[in-house]
Structures are given as structure tokens and as C-alpha cells.
Amino acid sequence: MYRETRNWLLKALILLLIPSLGMARAVVLMDKQTALQRAFPQADRIERETLFFDSAARAEVSRLAQAPFESGLFTVYIGYRAGEIQGYTFIDTRIVRTHPATFMVVLAPKGRVRMVRVLAWGEPPEYQPMRRWLAQFEGHEETRGLQLDQDIQGISGATFTSRTLTEGVRRALAVYQFCLEHTDEGQAASC
């Protein structure tokens, strides 16, 4: 009786554990607070703005980004120093292949890409982009100039990674162009 119960419990435990064996856990590379401090090292305050998009606005941002823009809201962090905007940071989470990745796109006050960093990575490590690859985005300020395998070199063997992050940077630039580009210096976002 003892042996039968033990075998049954062992089988039940194995059945419970099998689904979790294939599930990858995202590796957090940088928490949000640290990321925002790196995005705005000179800022004396950072404000969080939530931008709301109706279906027409989503369609326009999607057109500008040349990428899907499904959400009706998007969060932007705005860094200020002495009342002047230091830049904008967008933190986005997307499914790369089968697991999520969280990344941030930092724009200078006039909309030029200053930095792109991966904050959390759920895919296998071999698909994670290196900083050298992410540096390709720096200096770009228009979505038209960000085409994979033209302006941006893909990552060999990691097409989904290349595509997801390139679309993410274009999405951040499109939100900036649609909502923030004509914002007066020192004023909050309006969309």
C-alpha cells in the first residue's frame, strides 16, 4: 500500500512539473528605476504620462511606425531638469518568438534616438541582442530610416529579435511624431 501511494504521488508530481520545465523565465537585466536613472542621469524629476489613442490615432501611429500598434494607451516617461525636457523614454514589452522581452527606447528632446536597452529577456540567451547591435538605432529620428536589413543590420539567426526591436523603436518614434514632437519645451505631453 505504501509503495503504491508513493508511486502515485511521484507520478502526480512529475505530471505537475513537466509543463513548467519548458517554460522560460524572463531574466531581468535592469529594473525600471535604474533604467530611468540611466535614461535621464541629469534629470531633477521624471514624470510618467499615459497617452490615450482612439482607433484613428492608433491607425495613424501604426502607419507612421510601419508596425502594429494595438494598444489604446502608451506610457512615456519625461525627464526634466530645471523645468526643461531632457528627453522621453518608452518602455515596451513584446513577444519576440514565444516569450516576452521588455526594452526601453530613449529619445532626446527633439526626437532623436539616444539609447535602446533590453530590460528583461525571456527568450534563450543566444537570441538576445548585444549593445553593439542596439547602438545602430542611436541618432535616428525618423521611422523611414529604420528598415531591417537596409538601415539596420539584422542579427544572424535571430530574425524575430531584429524585427521586434526594430518595430519597437519605430513605434516609439511614431508616438513621438504623432503626440510629442510639437509639444512646447517644458510642457507635458498631449495626444
Tell me what you see in this structure.
It is a single chain. The chain has 191 residues and is α+β, with helices and mostly antiparallel strands. It has one domain. The chain has five helices and six strands, in the order H-E-H-E-H-E-E-E-E-H-H. A six-stranded antiparallel sheet has the order 1-6-5-4-3-2, with helices on both faces. Strand 5 (100-107) and strand 6 form a beta hairpin. Helix 3 crosses helix 5. 34% of the residues are buried.
List keywords for this structure.
alpha+beta; six-stranded antiparallel β-sheet; 34% helix
Summarize, please.
This protein is 34% helix and 25% strand. With 191 residues, the chain is α+β, with helices and mostly antiparallel strands.
List the helices and strands and how they pair.
Elements: H1 2-21, E1 27-28, H2 32-39, E2 45-52, H3 55-65, E3 73-81, E4 84-95, E5 100-107, E6 113-121, H4 131-134, H5 159-180
Antiparallel strand pairs: 1-6, 2-3, 3-4, 4-5, 5-6
- Count every beta strand, where a strand is a DSSP E run of 2 or more residues: 6
Give the helix level as a range of percent. 25-40%
Largest sheet: 6 strands, antiparallel
Number of self-contained structural domains: 1
Order of helices and strands: HEHEHEEEEHH
Mean pLDDT across the residues is 85
The low-confidence runs, each spanning 5 or more residues with pLDDT under 50, are: 5-23
Strand-residue proportion: 25-35%
Distance between the termini: 69 Å
User: Strand arrangement, largest sheet?
Assistant: 1-6-5-4-3-2
